[in-house]
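Writing this down once: the sequence line spells out the residues, with the fold written below as integer tokens. This is how one looks:
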Amino acid sequence: MPKATIKSSTGAIITIEGSQEEISKIISDFEKTSAVTQSKTEVTKNQIKKRQDKKRLAASDLIIELKDDGFFDKPKSLLEISQALEEKGRMTPVTSLSGIMIKLVQERIFARKKVDGKWGYVK
């Protein structure tokens, strides 16, 4: 009686005994199932990647981009930062920016200086 051995992707070893037709049908079904499982895994990975690409950047990320572009070479007020973010398409009220900027100063990403009685943020 013919025998066949299949090693699955998980490492399991399957031994099949039967007629030639039975063995070829089982192997054919196994290969189809493996192909379907593999394509579903690829689709899921692509969906996760698309979801990650669609995520919106946080305001702090956009502010750091402004820093990289040289926007903070001179001290900038919260109003100037807000206007720069609006130009990038992000509406962020000045009242929200104060907390974000304080956090970035505490993380030593930015420094702040008093300019004309108001705080200005620089590199």
